[in-house]
Structures are given as structure tokens and as C-alpha cells.
UniProtKB/TrEMBL annotation:
It catalyses: 5-carboxymethoxyuridine(34) in tRNA + S-adenosyl-L-methionine = 5-methoxycarbonylmethoxyuridine(34) in tRNA + S-adenosyl-L-homocysteine. It comes from Serratia oryzae. The keyword Transferase applies. Belongs to the class I-like SAM-binding methyltransferase superfamily. CmoM family. Catalyzes the methylation of 5-carboxymethoxyuridine (cmo5U) to form 5-methoxycarbonylmethoxyuridine (mcmo5U) at position 34 in tRNAs. This is tRNA 5-carboxymethoxyuridine methyltransferase. SUPFAM superfamilies: S-adenosyl-L-methionine-dependent methyltransferases. Its EC number is 2.1.1.-.
Length: 261
């Protein structure tokens, strides 16, 4: 097993992820969470790491708020795309770009950061627990982690809804080299346990695309998008919908040393 580098399918990734209704729902739902998370952090320009940040859409939004954002990605093509987007948005002065894996980014940081974004990366790397530990070490005490991962529950549900019963068994899932289907979906309880073992305090959980991907008619994804988005935002933080999201967004905090005294 090895970590996935998107150099070979960067254009396909941008077209099929960012430029779709599922990408818009993901952006809207996670941004709601981030807005609430930022309110709990120091009210000053923050030092933020977007680990595996891809094209940098979320990073640029944070930079527009005046925060200092370092984006790293294993893919050089993604780094170039993120830098171009930052230039187009006029936020380059608030951003840095480093081609590096999330696991190795600590050696490039001059000091720990207030907030780490780790979105849709965990399911593409061979040693996810080690990656979380490495990022934990990059956080300031009291800092926050915004982690979004591909949900094994949602994958199972989606395959059953589509009638792909043979794919319910993880041992026979497709492994197309250029596929955008994540390689290592994760069980929510396992991910939560990893965070808690690090000493992280989980403060929130949100399902991302709790309805969108299960619609029988794909036309409704575009024709009824505003209604669908409203429903997603209404139910995404309630069970059982959280645990059925195609992705789950978890917010967690590193304990403050003062709180432990």
C-alpha cells in the first residue's frame, strides 16, 4: 500500500469533485462547521495548515479572512493549481505552498499552528494513524483539527442502494488506478478512537452529503439543488444521518496545557 498522488488525474479531480453539486454541498457544509470552529479559537490572525489541501479552495477562503495559511500537498500539480487560485483571489500574501506529504510537513513548520485542515486525505494514505499523530504534533496546545474522512458506512449504503452487492465486501472493491474512489474508507468509531488515543477532545461531528449521493434520480441533484442543500444543512449534524454521510467531518481540540494543571 502507498499514499495516493493526484498528479496523473488533477484535471479529472477538479472537474469531478470541485465542479459538481457534491463538491458544492461539501464546501457549504464544512464551511459552516469551520465558521463555528473559528469562533472558538483566538480572535486574531491564525496560523493554519491545510494538509493535503489540493486546489486550495478552503485555504483561500481562510486567507481571505486574514489568516496565514500554509498549504501542503504531495502533488506538485495541485500545488501549482492552489498557488494560481490564491493569485486569482488576491490572497497570495497570506499563503505559503509546500510540496510535501502531510506526515512530513512538521519539518517545514517554523512553529506549531492554531488550526489544521485535513480534508479527504486520510482515506488515500497507507498509515492513517501515523499521519494523525504527526499532525497532532504540529498543533499548538488548545489548537483545533478539522478532519474530514471517507465514511465506510456511507460506502456500504451507497453500494447497496445501487445494487452493487458484491462491493459490500471490502476485499472485492474495485481498485482502478485512475479512479476517484478512495482507497481506504474508514469506520467512524475507529477514527474517533484514534483521535481520543492522541488525547484529542472531539467537539463536533457532521455528515457530509447525507442525502445527495443516495438520490435515485441524479437529475434532482441539479434541478432541486437549493432544496437539497437546505435539507443537507438541516440534518447533517443529527444522527443517524451523521453516520450515513459519504464523508464525516470531525472537529477536535488539542488540550490546553493550562486546562491540565
Amino acid at each position: 500500500m502507498q499514499d495516493r498522488n493526484f498528479d496523473d488525474i488533477a484535471e479529472k479531480f477538479a472537474r469531478n469533485i470541485y465542479g459538481t453539486t457534491k463538491g458544492k454541498i461539501r464546501q457549504a457544509v464544512v464551511w459552516q462547521d469551520l465558521t463555528a470552529l473559528l469562533a472558538k479559537l483566538p480572535q486574531r490572525p491564525l496560523r493554519i495548515l491545510d494538509a493535503g489541501g489540493g486546489e486550495g479552495h478552503m485555504a483561500c477562503q481562510l486567507a481571505e479572512l486574514g489568516h496565514q495559511v500554509l498549504l501542503c500537498d504531495l502533488s506538485g500539480e495541485m500545488i501549482q493549481r492552489a498557488a494560481l487560485l490564491a493569485e486569482q483571489k488576491g490572497v497570495s500574501q497570506n499563503m505559503q505552498f509546500i510540496q510535501s506529504s502531510a506526515q512530513d510537513i512538521g519539518q517545514h513548520l517554523e512553529q506549531p499552528v492554531d488550526l489544521i485542515l485535513f480534508h479527504a486525505v486520510l482515506e488515500w494514505i497507507a498509515e492513517p494513524q501515523a499521519a494523525l499523530a504527526a499532525l497532532f504534533n504540529c498543533l499548538l496546545p488548545g489548537g483545533a483539527l478539522s478532519l474530514m474522512f471517507f465514511n465506510a458506512n456511507g460506502l456500504l449504503m451507497r453500494n447497496v442502494v445501487l445494487g452493487n452487492f458484491q462491493l459490500v465486501d471490502p476485499e472485492v472493491r474495485r481498485r482502478r488506478k485512475r479512479s476517484l474512489s478512495p482507497q481506504y474508507p474508514h469506520s467512524p468509531p475507529q477514527v474517533y478512537a484514534w483521535l481520543e488515543q492522541l488525547g484529542m477532545q472531539i467537539s463536533g461531528k457532521t455528515g457530509v452529503r447525507v442525502f445527495h449521493d443516495y438520490l435515485q434520480s441524479r437529475q434532482l441533484q441539479t434541478q432541486k439543488f437549493e432544496e437539497l442543500l437546505a435539507l443537507e444543512q438541516l440534518y447533517c449534524r443529527q444522527e443517524p444521518y451523521v453516520s450515513l454521510g459519504r464523508y464525516i467531518h470531525v472537529m477536535a481540540h488539542k488540550p490546553n496545557l493550562k486546562d491540565e494543571l
